[in-house]
Design goal:
Number of helices: 21
Largest sheet: 3 strands, antiparallel
Strand order of the largest sheet: 3-2-4
Radius of gyration: 26 Å
Oligomer: single chain
Helix content: 55-70%
Amino acid sequence: MSAFRNKSPSEDLPSLRHRPNNANVVVEDHTNQIDMAPLPLFHKNTVSSSLDSIRILPRVPTGLSTGIEDVELSLLSEEERASAGRNLQDGDAHPSADGAKTTVMSSRDKKAMTLLIILYLIQGVPLGLALGSVPFILREHLSYSQLGVFALSNYPYSLKLLWSPIVDSTFLPSIGRRKSWIIPMQLIIGSLMLYIASNVGKLMENPADNIYELTFVFTSLVLFSATQDIAVDGWALTLLSQENLSYASTCQTIGLNTGFFASFTVFLALNSEAFAEKWGIPRLELSTYLRFCSLLCFGVTFWLTFFETEGNESLDKSEMTVTSVYKTIWNICKLKHVQALIIMHFFAKVGFQANEAVTSLKMIEKGLGREDLAIVVLIDFPFQILGGWFAAKWSSGDRPLRPWIWAFWPRLAFAFLSTLIVYWFPTPPLSYGFFVFLIIHTVLQGLASTIQFVGISAFHTRISDPLIGGTYMTLLNTFTNLGGTWPKFFVLKGVDYFSEAYCEVNEAHSELLVKAIECVSEHGKDVCSEIGGKCITERDGYYYVSAICMSFGVLFLVFYIIPTARKLQALPMYRWRVSPE
């Protein structure tokens, strides 16, 4: 590290460095970890992250104990601190009755949280369609292999790192660094949803013939949503004050879940003919819902354009180049502990991928109504919101990955239980007791998933260097999302690969058995139906894929995730910073 300290302070910092005005500068005592060589003198008004002993990090709500006794270096003189104390806002620290300082969330932060929730909600709508409701609608007409092709539409959200430097470094100063991308992306998202609404009849009438066009359209929709997400992630780092920055993950949880469940569970219920007849309400068509969402998207964009002002960020224009940002990403990826984190993210979700990608489809196959599934998940929704709020507090201590690690065990256990539920699924109609059991199972499984999501998001927020915008955050979130996306294609393909089925044809009081692997696909099932036969599943590949995934998940958790995560969360913040070259 000595070479790092000996660099001239006048040399350029890493690319894309912005300096939030509300950044807290903290000096940690690392006397037992690093060589405390004399540091070069800097101008008194200069704040540089190139010093190992100085870190700029997201702060957790001050009402929570972090368990770490940090040594804070104030850059203000006594007179300046006294002046700042006289100008406390409603979001500043106030002494309580026992003399301790507590923080009241300012009106500015409340407004910022509302804005973030709305922007994340807009992202959740396309994701709920592409990952949720549309695959369920298509399942009646497509095989699992064809659904695997449609699952490729999820990839842009996981690969957004490839173009995030362009989003982070290219903008119009007159509009704002983040609004320059958020506004046009939301206009495109709204327009694309209008296009799908106008052509939904043609696309959904024969989905097997239009599977590639469907995949392309929804891939484009997710692509623009992912681009908007890059800008929103970067804005979140400066939109909230440092004291409340950990609530950014809570805003993301609430917003994304609201949009996702609206497009998934709520829409599936209202789209169901049985649900509409039962409650005497008109059936909600996909085209109608898409038109409504497009109007919502246009409305939010109009409000954002004319009534929301983006704060100014101090930027070095000489550093704002796409090449320099890609170089920064490469420098981040060269950090050994970041490489360990990437490997962990890439395989962490394999253990419960069969459960998440196939279990619900199997339950519907065995007789669970889409409206019943929607009701189950709809009941689960408020519990996830509350779980996200408490998980944010749980993840704010000195071991933010602890809840993320612990939640692996219940998620793997619920994946195993889900496999048993599918195997012993009762013949419809379902009893009230089994339906209640299904609700409890879904709620507890969702809580474990939410705890992991919020926990890892809080960890990413904590270690991300705000001096390189949303690039660091997007890098980490990209590999998290990719870890849950890339296995789906292989899981869905694997279900058909390991499945064996034959067509049973009754003819002239005699039973003629025709072995046909094609009976696994929708084409084979149609052919079997045309000759008056019935497809009989001899071996369901779902159970084989589920066993493979869970076995890998347990082994990877024990031998890699747990020891690696413990080492990563023990690292001081300065180790996550990128040294200037």
